[in-house]
Design a protein that fits this description.
The chain has one domain: NAD(P)-binding Rossmann-like Domain (Rossmann fold, 3-Layer(aba) Sandwich). Helices cover 42% and strands 10% of the residues. It contains nine helices and six strands. Bound molecules: nicotinamide-adenine-dinucleotide. Nicotinamide-adenine-dinucleotide (NAD) binds next to helix 1 and helix 5. The site of nicotinamide-adenine-dinucleotide (NAD) has 30 residues, from helix 1 and helix 5.
Length: 286
């Protein structure tokens, strides 16, 4: 009998209601995982969980509502998972905002280093960086072996932090987003080394997507012909000539979540169609 690559692994995903988080939840379910697809948008998370059927043991909005900024939410959800399954095997810290998300927050104004408000700077970091910090902290307590004081049944685990190509280069029009993602990149390595030193058997890695077509882009793309034009413009700046798909990112999350990556920790994985591989100002070919 074929067991999936995540057979029986208990997996918590944040920001799973749409985009890369949703694609990851769907792929994990196909690979035999027990999936907790949480989100701030609890109704959408619930719809997804019902759609995934037996892979999702709990489909109530109360259980799947996880605002990553909120320490108490994390405590409630991780405790519920441990109460039910006795362990947490995988955490995917995926939830994030850009600062241009009209339906989640009041308008945050410009995001460049000269005009961004302190309030919006803090709001973006609260979700992207504080949320990841909290997730790692709760995952460490849930994943560390019982011998180290963790819950009965724990057997190590894998934390996958979704950073961004923007965590590796400056983004003049989205400075807080870029800074928060650079923080995620660095914190991943601190967590990886800490967990290794403690002998927890917990791995922690970051993924750096670029130009992946998800709902996150919509406020920046416009609609109709302008939208098509904007996508063509972005694609022309990608060496592979197109934007990526959520499922392409989910495939790397799957690898890092599974035991196939058992010797990988503190590492970063770029998935951006080649954007970061080169520079615009290259000398002309002769
Ligand atoms: N799409 C890209 O091109 C791209 C590029 C680089 C990095 N990323 C990263 O990939 C991840 C997923 O992005 P996406 O493109 O799928 O975005 P998306 O906006 O489509 O989905 C993000 C999800 O996070 C949720 N969310 C927002 N704030 C939250 C909070 N406080 N608590 C819980 N959930 C919250 C939203 O409700 C949404 O469902 C993010 O970390 C993003 O920064 C995306």
């Amino acid at each position: 009998m074929h067991h999936g690559r995540l057979h029986d692994k208990v997996c918590l995903i944040t920001g799973a209601a749409r985009g890369i988080g949703e694609a990851t939840a769907r792929l994990f379910a196909r690979e035999g995982a027990v999936v907790w697809p949480t989100d701030l948008r609890a109704d959408s998370a619930t719809r997804l969980a019902r759609d995934l059927g037996p892979a999702c043991p709990d489909t109530s909005p109360e259980s799947l509502r996880l605002d990553v900024r909120d320490d108490a939410h994390w405590g409630r959800v991780v405790d519920a998972i441990i109460a039910r399954h006795g362990r947490l095997d995988v955490l995917v810290n995926n939830a994030a905002i850009t600062g241009f998300d009209p339906d989640l927050h009041p308008p945050m104004g410009p995001q460049d280093p000269e005009h961004a408000s302190l309030e919006s700077w803090r709001a973006v970091h609260a979700t992207n960086l504080d949320g990841t910090f909290l997730g790692c902290r709760h995952a460490l307590r849930a994943m560390k072996p019982h011998a180290k004081g963790g819950p009965i049944g724990a057997r190590g685990g894998s934390i996958v932090n979704i950073s961004s190509r923007s965590g590796q280069v400056g983004i003049p029009g989205a400075a807080a987003y870029a800074s928060s993602k650079a923080g995620v990149r660095n914190h991943t390595k601190s967590v990886a080394l800490y967990a290794a030193r403690q002998g927890y058997g917990v791995r922690c890695n970051s993924i750096h997507p670029g130009a992946v077509l998800t709902p996150m882009w919509e406020p920046m793309l416009g609609s109709g012909a302008a939208r098509e034009e904007a996508i063509r413009g972005i694609s022309s700046g990608v060496p592979l000539g197109r934007m990526g798909t959520p499922n392409e990112v989910a495939q790397i999350v799957l690898f890092l979540a599974s035991d196939e990556s058992s010797y990988v920790t503190g590492a970063e994985f770029v998935i951006d169609g080649g954007i970061l591989a080169g520079a615009e100002a290259e000398p002309p070919e002769r």
